[in-house]
Amino acid sequence: MGAATFVFVVRENFRLVAGEDAIAIYMPEDGYRYTRSFCSKCGSALGEIGGNGESFPIPANCFDDPLDLSVRFHEFVAEKPDWLPICDQAKQFDRHPVSN
Description:
Layout: E1 6-10, E2 23-26, E3 36-39, E4 45-47, E5 55-59, E6 73-74, E7 91-92
Parallel strand pairs: 6-7
Antiparallel strand pairs: 1-5, 2-3, 3-4
Organism: Qipengyuania qiaonensis
Family: Belongs to the Gfa family.
Domain CENP-V/GFA: 4-77
């Protein structure tokens, strides 16, 4: 697993401007919720572009414009390597957070 900052996007507000034909989609493994999408030309991780949910995660580095972000939570911290500290007070979850 890799570590990245993800932005959860409301599907109806998202517009892919180019490159849809180059997106490769992989189904999630057991225990994971989202499909994984990658650019088949450069290998960039694109998040869950191909799914059906109301919202979905996209790596923050995929956006062209600056984003005003703050970390709300960390997920899968049980899989985090010991040498990688979490240096903020955001909530931490061993797996996906559960919605109330």
